[in-house]
Specification:
about 400 residues; alpha+beta; Outer membrane efflux proteins (OEP); 2 domains; two-stranded antiparallel ribbon; 9 helices; elongated
């Protein structure tokens, strides 16, 4: 799981997206502070224009150079800046939540792929044991045929069982190779490198989950990334609605600055005042206030209506998400406790089938039953062991999912 998360492209994308949200958050914070800007303007004028030295119209060619340093700040904008800040903060939190959600999804995906690979790996061991047992039985049967105790039909039947077991072993190995390749792909692990599957299914001690589904659901609502993401979407939609409403309200801003300029007349014979003198003497300060009142903008009204509808959509999505989450928790608890019962029953069945197979095998050696009866008993035992293995694997998945819904990390 750790390797898969570190090499997951989806997780890396979510990290970069969260970084973008963090940058948007810092930009929203900076919106509260005054804006500071500087302007430099240079222009040539020719033909009929105003002579700055006499303030009269003349046909002259002039050069004008303007300098302006100013600052502006919004005192009221209908709450747009504050709501944009809150929305950016929610986006930042959701970005971090989406990283955790991507990590959890990848961990669950790897867990499922690992369980499949481990299951087929254990099936190989069971198939090898059965093949070894069949080969031993064939060896004894051949010896008994030489002694005249068994007939050729019995030997042929045992050979057919050995061939079937050999095929089953090859089939399980192929299934394991496919599951291992799927696991490597899920982990973004190099397919050419070896990967050892190590699990101790025999050490599993299934226990009933006595947790109440409602209690686990409350834990999931507060900590599960899926539930938190649905809540974040509602909050973002509400802030967007407030931003849209703020656009139809008046806005008030202040502006203050310092300006100066330099002038030169190319058509006159008068000596131009030096740049340094003009830059100092022409300097002036100013303060201004701007009140903007929206009167009509049809698109803003439509945007407000759409933003209000988006709130309802987000709330419906949240209800659907939480309802599915509650159903998944209930199903996981039911499956987990059901698998506990099935495992205990299958353990008893495996013991019974093992004893039955031992008895049938002894009877076959003594000539009391046919090879077909031995084949049937052997397959019954193998099927019981495979079913027990499957139930143990399924119990592992459901048990870990319940712990995950309770707030525990998937990676222990």
């Amino acid at each position: 799981m750790k390797y898969a998360i570190e090499h997951s492209t989806t997780v890396q994308k979510r990290i970069f997206e969260a970084s973008n949200y963090k940058a948007d958050y810092h930009a929203a914070v900076n919106s509260f502070f005054p804006k500071l800007a500087a302007e430099v303007n240079a222009q040539y004028n020719w033909g009929r224009n105003i002579d700055p030295s006499t303030n009269t119209y003349n046909t002259i060619t002039t050069f004008n150079n303007y300098y302006n340093l100013y600052s502006s700040v919004y005192l009221f904008d209908g709450g747009q800046i504050i709501n944009q800040f809150k929305q950016a903060r929610i986006n930042k939190m959701q970005g971090e939540n989406e990283i955790q959600r991507a990590r959890d999804d990848k961990a669950i995906e790897v867990m499922q792929a690992f369980i499949d690979a481990a299951y087929y790996n254990e099936c190989i061991s069971l198939a090898q044991d059965k093949l070894a047992d069949s080969n031993q039985t064939l060896l004894k049967t051949n010896r008994q045929e030489e002694l005249g105790i068994k007939g050729r039909p019995d030997v042929a039947q045992i050979k057919a069982q050995v061939a079937e077991d050999d095929y089953n072993l090859t089939h399980q190995q192929n299934l394991y190779n496919t599951a291992l390749l799927t696991l490597k792909s899920t982990m973004s692990y190099p397919s050419s490198d070896s990967l050892t599957i190590d699990t101790l299914t025999q050490c599993i001690k299934p226990e009933f989950k006595i947790e109440n589904a409602a209690d686990v659901y409350l834990c999931a609502l507060n900590g599960n990334p899926v539930a938190k993401s649905a809540d974040y979407n509602i909050q973002k939609a509400r802030y967007q609605y407030n931003i849209m409403k703020g656009k139809i309200l008046p806005s008030f801003s202040l502006t203050a600055g310092v300006a100066t300029n330099y002038y030169k007349n190319f058509s006159g014979s008068d000596t131009t005042i030096p740049f340094r003198t003009q830059f100092k003497n022409n300097r002036g300060e100013y303060v201004g206030a701007v009140l903007s009142i929206p009167i009509f903008n049809g698109s803003t009204r439509s945007d407000i209506k759409k933003a209000k509808n988006n709130i309802q959509i987000a709330m419906l999505d949240r209800d659907e998400t939480t309802r599915k989450l509650h159903t998944d928790i209930e199903q996981a608890l039911l499956d987990c406790n059901g698998y506990v019962k099935e495992i205990r029953q299958m353990e008893n069945k495996v013991n019974a089938d093992s004893l039955a197979y031992y008895v049938v095998k002894r009877k076959f050696e003594e000539g009391m039953v046919s090879a077909i009866d031995l084949h049937t008993s052997s397959n019954t035992l193998l099927q019981s062991r495979v079913t027990l293995l499957q139930k143990r694997m399924l119990y592992m998945i459901k048990s870990r999912l319940i712990d995950y819904y309770k707030g525990e990390s998937l990676i222990k």
